[in-house]
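Researcher: Hi, I'm a grad student and pretty new to this. My advisor asked me to get structures for two proteins we've been looking at. I'm not sure of the right format, so I'll just paste the first sequence and hope you can take it from there.
Model: That works fine. Here's the first sequence with its C-alpha cells right after it:
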Amino acid sequence: MNKGRLTTRERLAIGRQRMPEQDALARRANFGEVNLGLAGQVAIVEAERCLLCKNPTCIKGCPVNVNIPRFLDFLRQGRMAEAARSLLGDNALPGITGRVCPQETQCECDCIRAAKGDSVAIGHLERFVADWAYAHPEAVPNAVAPANGGRVAVVGSGPAGLTAAGELAHLGYAVTVYEALHRPGGVLVYGIPEFRLPKKIVAQEIDRLCAAGVVIECNVVIGRTYTLADLRQRFDAVFIANGAGLPMFMNVPGENLKGVYTANEYLTRVNLMAAFDPRADTPVLRPRRVAVVGGGNVAMDAARTARRMGAEQVILVYRRTKVEMPARAEEVHHAEQEGIEFELLAAPLEVLGNGERWVAGLKCARMELGEPDASGRRRPVPRPGTEFTLACDVVISALGTRTNPLLPATCPDLKFDARGHLMVNAEGMTNLPGVFAGGDIVRGAATVILAMGDGKQVAHAIDRYLRPEAGDGPSKISGQTPISAQE
C-alpha cells in the first residue's frame, strides 16, 4: 500500500478488517469486554476503505450528525489529535456509541460501499479514536466555554441528558444534571452489561463533561426531592430526559412467583449494584436454567448476563423469527456463540411453580406469523394445541419499558399522549414554556444513539429559545442560580 492517497480502485480492493474478540468459551464465564478493539495499523487500513464521497450519505444516517469522512481522513493520515478533536466536537459520547450504537442500521447502512459489499467499519473506528483520545488527554484538552449567563437544568443522566448537557456547556450555559440513582449514567450503567460497555468508559465520558463545566447531582428525584416547578423557578430552561424505566410485564398467570425478574431489575442488580462480584452484598439468584422472554438488545443482555452468572442453560423465547428480532445482529451472533439457545415462534402462556411458589417452568405456545401489525412486522398468532413447557428455575421478562408514572403524577400540567410519552413540538418543547424533553420519555424505549440525537438537537433548540436572533425577541436568560447553590 502506498503512503499517499489511494485511488478508488485501491480502496475498493481492501477488505473490511475484523474486530478481534474474546474466545466465546472463555468470555461466557467472565464480564470482560467481548470486542477487544482494533490495533493502530489495522484501524488505519480500515479508514483507508472510506471512499471520501462528495455526498457522504453516512452522515445523514448518523442521529448526531458526526462528520464521519473528516475524522476518518485524519485517522487515515495518522493525524490522531485532529481525528479526536473532530469526533469529540460532533459526538459527546463517542466511546459509548462506538461500542453500543447500531451502526449497521444507520451510518454503515448508508455507507456507499454497503451497496456492493461490506461498509466501512465506522463504529469500530469511532471506538478506536475515542479510546485514543482518552489515552492521550494532553492531545485533546478539555475546554470550558465562556459563560453566557444562562442556566439549564437537565433531568436524567442517561444518553439524552448527558449529550444535551455537553452541548449546552459547549454553548456557554451553566448546566446542572439531576440523577435519581446514586451513580450517573442512567441506562448506560444500570442496563448495559460490562462485557458490552465497560463502566470505566462511561466514567471517562462523564468525567470529560464535568471537566467542561457540567455539574451532576445524584440521589435527586424530580417530583420528590425537587418539583418541576422548583426547577422552572431557578433555571432558564429545563430538559427532561429521565427515560422510560417502568418495565412491561408478560401478563400471564404465575408472573408473581419467586424467581421471576424483569430485565430492568435483573440487570440493575448485576450491573449497577455489582451482583456479578461474589463479594457484593447485592442478592441475586444464580439458577441452573433460565428462560428469557423477548428479542431485543435488553433480552440479549439478560440472557448473556445469566450465562456469565453461572447458568448452565439459557433459553431465549421470542414470538417471531430471528429475521424480525430487533436486537443488533452482532448481539444475536455473540449470544449464539456463547451457547444461548433460541426458542423462536414461541410465546409464554404461564409461569409454572412448585409447592413453595418458586419457578419450576415456563409454559409456552407455538406461534405462526400472520398479517403485519402496527409495527410493520407480521403479527404472531398462536397455533392451537401446540403448548409445551420449558424447565427453568428463573424467568426474566425483557419486553420493553414505559414511562415512569412519577413525573405525570407530580406534574399534572405536562401533556402526555395515550402511550404515556411526553408530547413535544418540533423544537422538542413541551406544552410548558421553557420545558423541553427528549429521549425515551418522548419516543418510547429506543436506542442510545437516538436518545443522544434528541439531546443534541434539543440543546440547540434551547439555545435558540433562550438567545433568539436580533428582531425575534429579547433574551430569556435570567441569571437564576440552581437550587443546590441556595441551600
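Researcher: Oh nice, that was easy. Here's the second one.
Model: And its structure:
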Amino acid sequence: MKITHTLAIVLRQFYLMRGSLSRVLPLFVWAGIDIVLWGFITKYLNSFISSGFNFVPSLLGAVLLWDFLIRVMQGVTMTFFEDVWSRNFLNIFATALSISEYLMGLVLSSIATSSIGLVVMVVLATALFGLSFLVYGVMLVPFFLVLFMCGIALGILGSSMVLRLGPPAEWFVWPIPAIVSPFVGVFYPLEYCSFVYLVKTLGPCGSRWSGC
C-alpha cells in the first residue's frame, strides 16, 4: 500500500469540497441543527423533573455520539458516491490504485469530514447547553473508538451495496442509521431493546395482554 495513492483520494475530495459550498455546509449544518433541537428538548424535559436528574449529559450526549457515528458513515459513503455520480470508476480502475488504498482513502476522508462535524457539535453543546464531557471520564475514548469503527463498517457496507446492486441502491444506504438505532440502545438501556423484551411487550401473550 502506497500512502501517496491513498492521499490522492483525500486530495481529490478536498478539491471537490473547496469549490462547492453545497458540499461544505452539510458537514456542520445538520449536526448543529440536531444539537440545538435536542438541546432544547433536554432543557424542556429538565423543567418537569423535580429529583434533580439532568437530561443533558444522558440524552444530548447520546445524540452527539450517535451523530458522530452517522457523520463517520456518511464521510465514507459520500466520498464513494462522488465517484458513482461522476462515473469516475473507469478512471480509478485504470490507475494503479488498489482496493485497500481506495478504502483507506475513504477512511481518511471520513476522519477529516466527521471531525468538522464533531467539533461543531461539541462547541454548540458546551456553549449553549452546558454539556461537559468530563462526566463521561476516560470512557469517552472507547466510546468514540467503537463508534468510529462502527461508522466505518457501516459506510463500507453501504458502499458495497451500491457497488453490487448499482446506483439505485443508494436509497438503501441512507436509512441504515435509522434502522440500526432502535436496536443499539442510543437513547435507552440495551435491555429495553432486546428481542425478549419486545416479545413480552408487543406479543399476543405479553404483559399487556391479560386475556391471552
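Researcher: Is there anything I should tell my advisor about the second?
Model: You could mention this: The CA atoms of residues 119 and 195 lie 36 Å apart.
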